[in-house]
């Protein structure tokens, strides 16, 4: 294989034998990606001569001598530029200790690798930021020295048996293939509740789609619920992502804001069996809430005590691909009332971004909350949603006017994007019957309006009052051409 002497990037994928001696001559090489069926014993010693190499990726390579190549790896001191090592589909690997001397190494990825081990002194790589063990199965426990990695941002691994001893782990932890955990006791032994430095937690199952026959597998549902219940994190946690969860209800520690008072972000994705979701308390620190692919979800309920502000820090709300979602309501628990009352709470902070996509049964704005500056409605019941947005603002302004509130309430929707809303014919005709300030403070601040693939929309008589409009995009609407 002929390669120019000054080449910087090489991606070689072939079945022909690769003469490793060639590699050592490419002194300027920065990135090396190899996927070959056969290599010789000189592969790694040749790679060690590449003193400018920054990224090394080996795909399905038979790593000859890799488990005992510490002595044969050549002059490892030359590889001071190495930043990223990625190895895919290798078996019985044992990293040589040279890796622990690479003080500039930032990323170590081992994907699809079986029966491997990390070096015990991996904690010496103080610059290491990301360890990805996705779809890999380790032999033995994770080295305890991994807790010394002060700059570690991400740790991705399969299963939970390696976590018990890592009480000092920090940064981001993602645990995959939790559907393979059959005993809830194993989940409890992960001891996430005793990991105070963990900032972000991802829990990943491989739940079947909503229409699958396995939806009726009660044993699998119970197992998933028991495992999640015992994976309660420390109250210091700031970000929580749950993907592919197969239970019909979420864990009790998730819905009580007092147990996770510092949560800034919640992402619940493809939890297809859950039919209801309940939050208890105001979630005072929450800034981002994303619910996507909860196909069986019918209702979201938030329980507050009288006087609590609702999501006081929320900046962004996203509701996506939830075909059965019908309502998002708030219940006020008033000690003076005989029963909890549905009511409109105070909104100390309005989210800047609203994204509601593919929620066809949702006809009213979630929680009656006035929206912020950027609104996206896509393939839903947008005619009623749009009217609900305006009415929520009208109700809020009217309430403040009647109470002579001095609070500054001035929502300004600057961007409104409507995509694929087949039942949207025009802006609500009864807008003018609302409180006049609602119209002035909403529609007149609109700067961007995009209406695309809304086949019934007739805009010419509906948008004349948008005096601040700077960008108007109307396309693929049957009645406008």
From TrEMBL:
Domain of life: Eukaryota
Annotated InterPro entries: Leu-rich_rpt, LRR_dom_sf, LRR_R13L1-DRL21
Cited SUPFAM superfamilies: L domain-like
Annotated R13L1/DRL21-like LRR repeat region domain residues: 160-292
Alphabetized Pfam families for the sequence: LRR_1, LRR_R13L1-DRL21
UniProt-recorded name of the protein: Disease resistance protein RGA1
Gene that this polypeptide is encoded by: LOC104613036
